[in-house]
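Below is how a single chain appears once it has passed through the pipeline. First comes the sequence as given, then the structure the pipeline wrote out for it. We keep one example in the README because the format questions we get most often are answered faster by looking than by reading.
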Amino acid sequence: MSAAQPPAEQFAALGALAGVVHGFTTRVSDIDVAHDKAEVLARLDHVHREVRNAYGVGDRPLITAEQIHGNRIGVLDRAGEHNECFAGCDGLITNRAGVCLGIYVADCCAVYLVDPVRHAIGLVHSGKKGTELGIARNAIQSMTKQFGSRAEDLVVQLGPCIRPPHYEIDFAAEIVRQCRDLGVIAVNDSNVCTACDLTRYYSYRAEKGRTGRMLAFLALA
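Resulting structure:
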């Protein structure tokens, strides 16, 4: 893999912000991913690591969430020294530099949250159930409680996720609504459907559960 062209993409709204590093990995065509999640992540790990290296955060501890389709938010309020997974959580927030937040998706939405004023970030895994439980809303409220973030200062970005007609509901639209109801002005949606382009993305629904995962990552520079 060329470091100049890693299998990943970025979003203009986040790229315009100073002080943050982000990315969203894409499909890796030469890796067999017709396995369970644990095996798939093991097979993709070296590619995800190379992508993080290409973006300058490969040497940082990767902080992930267990992702149980709930609405709990893990708070990293200390210096991270090792890779860590927050049990029982589907979202992460921190104001610490030197770590990289990560969420794995394959139809669910990765929601990036950046507070450029108070230098805090969040990353959320929000599918149908998590959206119904208001996890993005919980993450914003947690950033307010923990770091003093104000909704009107936040920049929110929704990554590629499954959408109608490939899925029965448009949970991305509901995530946008929840964020705006809290007062977030800068809510940006990629408007990309994972199930529409299986050459670029993995889709759990379209590939009947035997597929890879995209890694959404976010860090303070």
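The chain has a mean pLDDT of 95.

See the next section for the split statistics.
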